[in-house]
């Protein structure tokens, strides 16, 4: 599901807090915007086992 609400793609570098908009560019700095919605959750994640194993390996290092 795609969200209509977008956030400035470089807000961490240029703004104190996120700048939300409906347009494809930031109204304050003109930078491109990105979708503000989180990635969808899939309970049947086919790669979840591998992703969690990698996360454990990185935490052990």
TrEMBL record:
GO terms for molecular function: snoRNA binding. It comes from the Archaea. InterPro entries: H/ACA_rnp_Nop10, H/ACA_rnp_Nop10_sf, Nop10_arc-typ. The keyword Lipid biosynthesis does not apply. Residues 52-61 have a biased composition (Basic residues). Gene3D superfamilies: H/ACA ribonucleoprotein complex, subunit Nop10 (2.20.28.40). GO terms for biological process: pseudouridine synthesis; rRNA processing. Residues 21-61 are annotated as: Disordered. GO terms for cellular component: ribonucleoprotein complex. Keywords: Ribonucleoprotein, Ribosome biogenesis, rRNA processing. Pfam families: Nop10p (PF04135). Involved in ribosome biogenesis; more specifically in 18S rRNA pseudouridylation and in cleavage of pre-rRNA. Belongs to the NOP10 family. This is Ribosome biogenesis protein Nop10. It comes from Haloferax marinum.
């Amino acid at each position: 599901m795609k969200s209509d609400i977008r956030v400035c793609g470089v807000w961490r570098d240029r703004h104190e807090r996120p700048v939300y908009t409906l347009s494809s560019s930031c109204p304050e700095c003109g930078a491109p915007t990105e979708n503000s919605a989180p990635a969808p959750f899939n309970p049947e994640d086919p790669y979840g086992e591998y992703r969690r194993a990698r996360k454990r390996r990185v935490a052990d290092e």
